[in-house]
Amino acid sequence: MLDRALKLDELLCFSLYSANHAMTRLYRPLLAELGVTYPQYLVLVALWEKDSQRVNELGERLALESNTLTPLLKRMEAAGLLIRRRNPSDERSVIVALTDKGRSLEQASVEVSNRILDAVGGDVAEMIELRDRIQTLAERLQGSD
Fold it and tell me: What's the maximum distance between 2 C-alpha atoms anywhere in the chain?
């Protein structure tokens, strides 16, 4: 147990916040070249992994509420990256699917990943280990609710 309040530079939350902020700043110009924002990029990545998902399934995967996800999807549809349609087997749900334009960005995103890898030091194994540790931390924190 601690016997004093932590200093700013000792706070895990501040380190995560600072790293997230730096990562977002790094992604912004790279994704601008693709014509997408960071949240739009995350939607695309999820759809590249599994196309034609229900909106609620996509929201769960991205940890986004529908009131955040729906306007994001509408903007992406207006940009021609995806289409939204009613689920024929359940009219209450909406299916999101990539367009050819949305699919075409997948190959272009390889350069984004390579530039991010270079920026974090170029060691894939180290990056995977760090990602896994952060995911474990997130799971522990979500379990403590």
Answer: 60
More confident of the two residues 91 and 20: 20
pTM attached to this predicted model: 0.89
Question: Under CATH, what is the fold of the domain 36-105?
Answer: Arc Repressor Mutant, subunit A (1.10.10)
Terminal CA-CA length for the chain: 21
For the chain, the structural domain boundaries read 36-105
pLDDT attached to residue 144:
77
Residue with tokens 């359940």: 90
Residue 37 in tokens: 């924002």
How far is Cα 135 from Cα 142, in angstroms, rounded to an integer? 10
| The predicted structure's pLDDT at residue 134 | 95
At residue 87, the pLDDT reads: 87
Report CA-CA distances (Å) from 59 to 47, 70, 91: 12, 9, 18
pLDDT of residue 30: 96
Measured distance CA(36)–CA(76) in Å, rounded: 9
The Cα–Cα gap between 116 and 97 comes to 27
Contact between 37 and 45 (Cβ < 8 Å): no
